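Folding Task

Wanted — backbone structure
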Amino acid sequence: MRRAPEDVQEGWKQALREGRIVCSPVVQFELARGARNAQELEYMAESMSAVDQVHIQRSTVVAALGAIVELAGIAPGFHRSMKFTDALIAATASDDRCLPVLHYDKHFERLARVLSFESRPIAPFGSI
């Protein structure tokens, strides 16, 4: 797993301590996919067990697919690199209290054009 700079890590830790981080099951799957071994996967699972969860509704899946369709309408192929998991995460944030999405992924900038959520990069792109 790629490690964020110390200042970014400290910001996450502080937000976790203050209960300002929530997670969806899709984020947990994304994190699990990035684990290099069973030890990292167990650590991730233990860490995430303390984080409040948001639920994915049927409307969330519909919104995620709709977002991809809208992106396709912006320009030919504009939607092709979009991971459905990113669309689900953004749609979940949009569905659930308009939560901001903390990320390091330019796909969320595109998704913020068609879904109602705040895209908040944790660091400037290319810096981590």
Observations:
- The first strand starts at residue 22 and ends at 23.
